[in-house]
Design brief:
heterodimer; A: Rossmann fold; six-stranded mixed β-sheet; four-stranded antiparallel β-sheet; about 30% strand; B: 2 domains; eleven-stranded mixed β-sheet; about 25% helix; globular
Chain lengths: ~250, ~450
Amino acid sequence: MLDIHDLHASAGDREILRGITLSVRAGEVHAIMGPNGSGKSTLAQVLAGHPAYEVTGGTVTYEGRDLLAMAPEERARAGVFLAFQYPVEIPGVSNAYFLRAAYNEVRKARGESEADPMEFLDLMERKLPLLDMDPAMMQRSVNAGFSGGEKKRNEILQMAVLEPRLAILDETDSGLDIDALRIVANGVNALRRPDNATIVVTHYQRLLEHIIPDRVHVLAGGRIVKSGGKELALELEAKGYDWLEAPAA
Amino acid sequence: MSTIASYRAQYEAFAANGGAAAPAWLRDARRGAIARFEALGWPTPKDEDWHFTNPAPIAEAELRPLHGATAGAVTAAALAPFAFGAAWPTIVFVNGRYRADLSRLDAGAGVRVMELARAWREMPAEIERHLTRIAPYDAQAFTALNTAFAHEGAVVHFAADAAPETPVHLLFASDAGAHDGVAHLRNLIVAERGASGAVVESWVGLAGVRQLTNAVTEVHVGAGATLRHVKVQRESDQALHVHTVQAAQERDSHFVSFSFASGAALSRTNIGTRLGGPGAGATLNGLYMVDGAQHVDHQTRIEHVAPNCFSRELYKGILAGASHGVFNGKVYVHPEAQKTDGKQTNANLLLSDRARVDTKPQLEIFADDVKCTHGATVGRLDRMALFYLESRGIGAALAQRLLTHAFAADVLGTIEVAPVRDALEALSLARYAGSGTAP
């Protein structure tokens, strides 16, 4: 589904990704771990098309298409979803309007008809309980005044509505207490299907107790320095990141 | 003949004819005011308050007085789109003249709505107590000029402790008959002690003709009273519009003002309040959204003269095309106004490279125990918010329009008169998001 080959990316004149190579197949969950500043969030944002980063080398192929040539909205319509580490507040646009606009864009891209407000309401009635969310949240402005936990749940709600083929969770666990973490993880697990894939970017192992990865990759200095099965996450939890040498630049 | 001399001649004709019926004190005030106007002359960009707005298009225009002309032929149907879908008590003026046939003055118990010339006969004490006493004109040429011609206009009186459920609507419309004319409308709103009322003032242009509105609205907010005032300026894109709203507040009163401006070629709105007794509060919010060659100027002046008062101010502007916005917000804190709590924000969104905004928040604080902040921003759409929307499949163009509307909706949401808020949100939505459903 996703083939990343020798990906390099910079912010300004600072190179952050220094040759990432990674393949993700349908049905898999990959965890990307690593210390702060290792480039793991940058990788997530580059895949979604964040304008602050410039790709300086390498290729990313998503379902046979050149992902890097696609605008952010085209990636989203093709099934790529990034759950933001810091979801953006948009005062003045209600959550309901925002989600329905996004949902209809994605439906149109799939060749499906747009959902009218009533159909959308039905959909929300099915999706909101998944994240244990109050329907009143739909009438509030997008993320405005939401608590940290509410913002993260709102991200996964969007994911539940848009049903992406490739979901990228960027530090979705940060700032969550254990109950919120469980709700978010359950939401993600409920959305797993044999034909979609998930990349979980996280600093800590605890999220991976709930979302069991097939593969774990450790990023340091903008490169993958170690890959393994789910037991690698436990090893990192026990030993920290210091035993992994960052490769020479 | 200079335009100043023209206005003098118009004044003499008015004083000898239509103006003669007014009480003696008002005739004296008019006489003093026209002399003051002549002494002051027109403001120029050399005046601090007019630095960013050149009033030359007004000063150089030879305009005929509309108070002597026949009222426009506007029908109720033509005004229906500006009624906010509500059946409020409404007083209508067309081309500067009162239109009894279009007005509905019954506002229920405790509320009186009428034209000024009737009010000085039916409630002379209230009129004399407040009219011309709230809005100063010693240094304000436009207010002096308005005062010289004070005759047409609306009076709204809320009796002590009155709390009507519906707002009163003052609707000022002009049609093609107003071309090259000037109307000096003079309004007075009085909320007596403990009253709670709302007044919506609409300024609507039905035809694209040059005309000048030079209006003054005086507002008295008695002790413990709350007065909500919403101004909606949708004049034609050829219109010239100058309007001063000046409030005087007594202790524990609240003045809640909103000024919306999307019309006029050149508009200048002055909103001022004097927090004259302890425990009073003022909320001054507004939104201007203009395009093309429009020029829109808001000047606000909040005067804290008593202790323990608060003021809140949020003005936003959306400037497209080659439009020019001006915001000048002054907050004066007098030495005796300890414990003043003031916050002022002006945020502007530029949608084009040719649009321009000048913003100047001014704090002058002479008390030592106060909490006052102010801030102004001029910018473009937030790139992170754009990316967030795009990352959900929403195309760049729609994302930009949505965020522009959201910028407006944020401050429109503070309007407490729901039908006005909804109507203006729909207006913004149609203009920026190109859709009828609320985001």
